[in-house]
From TrEMBL:
<dbReference type="InterPro" id="IPR012660">
    <property type="entry name" value="YiiD_C"/>
</dbReference>
<dbReference type="InterPro" id="IPR029069">
    <property type="entry name" value="HotDog_dom_sf"/>
</dbReference>
<protein>
    <submittedName>
        <fullName>YiiD C-terminal domain-containing protein</fullName>
    </submittedName>
</protein>
<feature type="domain" description="Thioesterase putative">
    <location>
        <begin position="5"/>
        <end position="145"/>
    </location>
</feature>
<dbReference type="Pfam" id="PF09500">
    <property type="entry name" value="YiiD_C"/>
</dbReference>
């Protein structure tokens, strides 16, 4: 799936992502990188606003599952059910969230459950980096609901 198309879809359907200037920069099949510039996400301390870092973390996990399920031809509704963010250090420049599939086995179970029950959930972790250094970790539980394909 073309990352430019993903970005256009996300900015059109989740407007805050355009305000955050979120950009989908790399996808490997098992990982997705979402980048955001400091200028659009700055706080009063001249570092990235914590809410922006958390939102980019959520978006990276959501985007990874969105792309993978689209690749499988599974029309679905995907939402975040729970979210936590661990702040390590301030991000003082552009920052990136790197979301990774937890394991091929967990993802396969997730897909099988989605096909069988029409609903499944999966935990995805995203690490947040700034200038090559890890500055935070997002943990999200995402729920997919299979849409009627009849």
């Amino acid at each position: 799936m073309d990352l430019g198309e993903v970005k256009a879809y996300v900015h059109a359907h989740i407007p805050i992502t355009a305000c955050l200037e979120a950009d989908f920069t790399e996808y490997s099949g098992d990982a997705l990188v979402v980048e955001a510039p400091l200028e659009a996400n700055i706080n009063h301390r001249h570092s990235a606003f914590g809410g922006s870092m958390s939102a980019i973390g959520i978006l990276s996990g959501w985007g990874l599952l969105f792309i993978k399920l689209r690749e499988l031809g599974m029309e679905n509704t995907l939402v975040i059910q729970s979210s936590s963010f661990e702040f390590g250090k301030p991000a003082v420049a552009s920052f990136q969230a790197v979301a990774k599939i937890p394991s091929p086995e967990k993802f396969e179970r997730f897909v099988k459950m989605l096909k069988r029950k029409g609903r499944a959930r999966l935990g995805v972790e995203s690490e947040i980096f700034c200038e090559g250094e890890k500055v935070g970790v997002h943990r999200g539980e995402y729920v997919a609901l299979l849409l009627d394909q009849s």
